[in-house]
């Protein structure tokens, strides 16, 4: 029984390590990569404007730009009247919108109502630190 348990743990850890290294290879560290952590949907307006300006300024050196939304107002992301314009502008500016799964769970937001264009991560704060370790410039609002 112990052998099966330890074998399973080793296999899972091997898969996790393989997946982690795959994710790391998709980030071009020679480019300017950005991450912003925000707690309020209306802040997406100036964040996306900033992403658009940086994309123009950086030119071919513009890499990834991710915006992590977390906190007690996370439920606002399920309101299509608030989100549809932000989602369209984010897509045009190559900005990835990310929902914090921890916040979604804590504030009992129906995960099925999260816009399909958004990525969901288990823990937004941890994800932010992981991106910083990969060289992303970070800002929290």
From TrEMBL:
SUPFAM superfamilies reported for this sequence: DsrEFH-like (SSF75169)
Keyword DNA damage applies: no
Signal peptide residues on this chain, from the entry's feature table: 1-23
Native species: Zobellia amurskyensis
Source domain of life: Bacteria
Name assigned to this protein: Sulfur reduction protein DsrE
InterPro entries linked: DsrEFH-like
Keyword set includes Transmembrane: no
Source organism phylogeny: Bacteria, Pseudomonadati, Bacteroidota, Flavobacteriia, Flavobacteriales
PROSITE patterns referenced in this protein's UniProt entry, alphabetically: PROKAR_LIPOPROTEIN (PS51257)
Gene3D superfamilies to which the protein is assigned, alphabetical: DsrEFH-like (3.40.1260.10)
The entry's keywords: Signal
Transmembrane segment boundaries: none
């Amino acid at each position: 029984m112990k052998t099966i348990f330890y074998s399973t743990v080793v296999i899972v850890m091997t898969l996790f390590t393989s997946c982690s290294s795959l994710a790391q290879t998709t980030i071009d560290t020679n480019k300017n990569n950005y991450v912003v952590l925000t707690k309020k949907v209306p802040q997406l307006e100036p964040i996306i404007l900033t992403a658009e300006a940086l994309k123009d300024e950086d030119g071919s050196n513009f890499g990834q730009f991710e915006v992590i939304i977390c906190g007690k107002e996370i439920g606002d992301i399920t309101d299509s009247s608030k989100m549809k314009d932000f989602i369209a502008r984010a897509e045009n500016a190559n900005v990835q919108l990310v929902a914090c799964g921890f916040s979604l769970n804590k504030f009992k937001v129906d995960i099925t109502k999260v816009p399909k264009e958004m990525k969901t991560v288990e823990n937004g704060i941890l994800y932010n630190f992981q991106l910083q370790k990969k060289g992303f410039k970070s800002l929290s609002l």
